[in-house]
Amino acid sequence: MKALVTGAAGFIGSHLSEALLVKGHSVTGADSFDPYYSREIKEKNLRKSLGEPAFHFVEVDLAEPAAASALISQGWDCVIHLAGRGGVRRSIEEPAAYVRNNYMATFNILESMKDSGVDKLVFASTSSVYGNRRNGPFNESDSTDWPVSPYSATKKGCEVLCHTYHHLYGINSYVLRFFTVFGPRQRPDMAIHKFVDAIVRREPIERFGDGTTVRDYTYVDDIVAGVIRAAERVEGYEIINIGGAQKTTLNRLISILEEQLGEAAVIVEKPIPAGDVMQTFADTGKAKRLLDFSAKVSIEDGLKAFIQWYREEQIP
Q1: Catalytic-role residue among 151, 174, 217, 237
Q2: Which domain holds residue 6?
Q3: Neighbouring residues of 230: CB distance < 8 A, sequence distance ≥ 6
Q4: Domain tally, the chain
Q5: Which band of pLDDT confidence, cut at 50, 70 and 90, is reported for residue 158?
Q6: How far is C-alpha 100 from the geometric centre of its chain's CA atoms?
Q7: Theoretical Cys-Cys bridge with 241: which of 148, 263, 282, 290, CB 3.0 to 4.6 Å?
């Protein structure tokens, strides 16, 4: 397979590129090095893939129509579109950046695919589109009409665009809703990374709420396995949850980290921010049927792997 991976310098994209190369695929990675977090981190993420002859990298801003067109027109067996602005809280502060980097970039990719005859897309969406729900597990047929942050609103908009371009132009699209991805190379603004860093340095951690919020943590290798199977099988238009299908409270997460780090966390309780949701919890039955996917890595084993990476890579 000749694959284009957008967001290839990011957390998930760099792992995906490496896994595709191991499987013998030809990969072109694209990234704009958006300043959401350090370019140095992203360049480090790319190092392993850049040493492989089957990998090519291009720096490109897909929110620019001409740039997207030039890239897509090279022809691909599958476009795996992971690029975009993440982060619920930041999206409330900078909504225009999310409209540009998420919605407009995806629009440009779809327009370019239409014009170039490239007809297979895997798009990275998010569990955030389900909104602030207390019941679960979340099923793909559930309503997603009530997003609670600009981030989730732009991702919902991208899902609708993918459906429209499938309906009008026959672009085969699998929309994958990722559930709270974690593991080595996780973005420095994400909770697990921030908690580990603070506990190791014996600094306070901020716990938003009383610790009873719930997340369906999904290890990055499981996410990558689901994405690759989607790229190999994409046909028609489908929305598919890719999650761990297990619930972990925030308090439980902190307890596991304390146990594995051998340090007690100093907790400062803060109000739950606007845009945050009370829980995420994936129904992965559809992923099992269409992709033969089920998560393999437990929260405990995944955190061990993250901590090992952190100790090797992050501590000066």
Answers
A1: 151
A2: 2-313
A3: 122, 174, 176, 240, 291
A4: 1
A5: very high
A6: 18
A7: 282
